[in-house]
Write a structure and sequence with these properties.
- The chain is α/β, with parallel strands linked by helices.
- It has one domain: Pectate Lyase C-like, CATH 2.160.20.80.
- Helices cover 11% and strands 26% of the residues.
- A seven-stranded parallel sheet has the order 1-2-4-6-8-10-12, with no helix packed on it. Strands 3-5-7-9-11 form a five-stranded parallel sheet, with no helix packed on it.
- The radius of gyration is 14 Å and the shape is globular.
Amino acid sequence: MKIEILSKEKLSELIAEHKEFIGGDDVAAKLDLSYYEIDDADFSNLDMQDLYFQKSVLLNSQFTSCSLRDAKFDNAILKSCDFRNSDLHKVDFIKCEIFGCNFSYADLERTNFIECVIENCSFNKDIVEKLSFIDCKIKI
């Protein structure tokens, strides 16, 4: 499947739809942002739990104080993204390339980094109970 550039307008529509589902009883309503390239998006202070990124490219995006609880990043590329103060509880990063991202003060409890390449990222003052790095290549 080909990666498509996601416009800010389309991203806003998808986020609005996701917000409606979070308030309802539809537990199957996960926001799927797979196969998109997203540049300079601001997800700050949003409830983005259960977000799914497969083979997506995230560039220069803000996730500060964002809830990404139970999200999954699968074969994604993350460059210069800011996850400061975010809830990343039980998030899975699987076979991701993560460069220059800031995870300072994030809740990384039960977060898994599996077979990831992680370079030049900040992990300062995080909650790290049961945090896992499995078969990762890390350069900090």
